[in-house]
Here is the input.
Amino acid sequence: LREADLTGASMVKTAGNRSVFAGATLDKANMDAIELFRADFTGASLAGTKLSRASMPRTTFDKANLAGADLQKSDMIRSSFDGADLSGVNMTFAILARSSFAGAQLDGSDWTSTYLYRTRLQGVDLSGVKGLTRDQVALACGDDDTRLPEGVARPERWPCNAQDD
Here is the structure.
């Protein structure tokens, strides 16, 4: 499905492994409760797409446009969002453990109760993220260049030093 136009498509509860949607347009699609393992959405547009309760471990969203998408209660463990636009995304109660967000745009996204165990946030600007707490940040991997929202204290020690990985 590389570069396919699936604008507004309904793929509720669809399942698949290693599906390729690179460069595809899936704006405002309904992908609630979809199950995709190791899917590739590199450079895809998923603006306003419903991905709530999705199970998409090890999926690549690098340089994808997910602006305004709904990822609440989704499982995106070990996924990559490097360089992606996640502005205004609802990620409440999502599982993003061991995922990567290098260079991602996150302004206005809601991370309330999002699970961030060893999530890669080194150098990421989280200053415009809503719902982020010190307890969540303390589980993630950040560095001196990680920008946190006002009122969220930097942990004494980030858990992912080179010797710990």
In short: Residues 98 and 119 are 4 Å apart (CA to CA). DSSP finds one helix and two strands in the chain. The first strand starts at residue 15 and ends at 17.
